Amino acid sequence: MKKSLLTLICLVVAISAAQAQLFPSIKFGVKGALGFSSLTSEGKVFNSDTKTGYQLGLWGRVGVAGFHVQPEAYYANKKIGFKTETENGDATFKSFDVPVLLGTKIGIGPVGFRIQAGPVFSFAQDGKVSLSSAVDWDKYKKTSTGVIGGIGADISKLTIDLRYEHGLSDLNESPDYNQKIRMWTIGLGFAIL
């Protein structure tokens, strides 16, 4: 009897594990985030201060056997404050960002904690610098890449994220500067599906 019960339990666990691998979980939702950006610069233009911007967009998640891929698409408004030798000002970088995050989720039922990381691709939309004498806006690139990573929590359909984005590519085409975005974000999302 004990062997039969043990065999039945093993069979149920094996079937559950096989179904988890054969049938991926799929989620889709909306998100918003506050971003706290700074611009590192090895050139002589910026001494950057952190300013608050925002992100608005969509996310999706496909998970199989405890791991998931989470592509996102959002509009980002990244702000920085800067100082030159003679003036202070603000700069705004507006972009369409597409991160592709890989991660895992630990939890039971409707509550789970996530760890995620991956590349982010940014496509510049527009931008402005309050001091036109400080920089030549036309020299800023239209695309950039970075890496993003962080932690998150899912509580039923609500998602909460804390992430750090580290720019990999130089934003300015000028050989005199090496400018890269650094940003912390705190996001809130809702799963529609």
Can you describe this structure?
This protein has 193 residues and is mainly beta. The chain has a single domain (24-191), classed as Porin, CATH 2.40.160. It has one helix spanning 2-22; strands at residues 25-41, 47-64, 67-83, 88-108, 111-129, 143-155, 158-167, 179-191. It has an eight-stranded antiparallel β-barrel with strand order 1-2-3-4-5-6-7-8. A hairpin with a 2-residue loop joins strand 2 and strand 3 (67-83). The relative contact order is 0.20. The model has no long low-confidence stretch (mean pLDDT 82).
Give a nutshell description of this structure.
By secondary structure, the protein is mostly beta strands. It is 11% helix and 66% strand. The protein is elongated.
Strand fraction: over 45%
Radius of gyration: 22 Å
Q: In whole angstroms, how far apart are the ends?
A: 44 Å
Low-confidence stretches: none
The strand count comes to 8
CATH architecture label name:
Beta Barrel
Number of domains: 1
> What characteristic shape results from the CA principal axes?
elongated
pLDDT averaged over residues: 82
Which class in CATH terms? Answer: Mainly Beta
Number of helices: 1
Give a quick account of the main beta sheet: strands, pairing sense, barrel closure. Answer: 8 strands, antiparallel, barrel
SSE order, as H and E?
Answer: HEEEEEEEE
Q: Which class best fits the helix and strand makeup?
A: mainly beta
Output the CATH topology: Porin
- As a percent range, the share of helical residues equals 10-25%
What is the strand arrangement across the widest sheet? Answer: 1-2-3-4-5-6-7-8
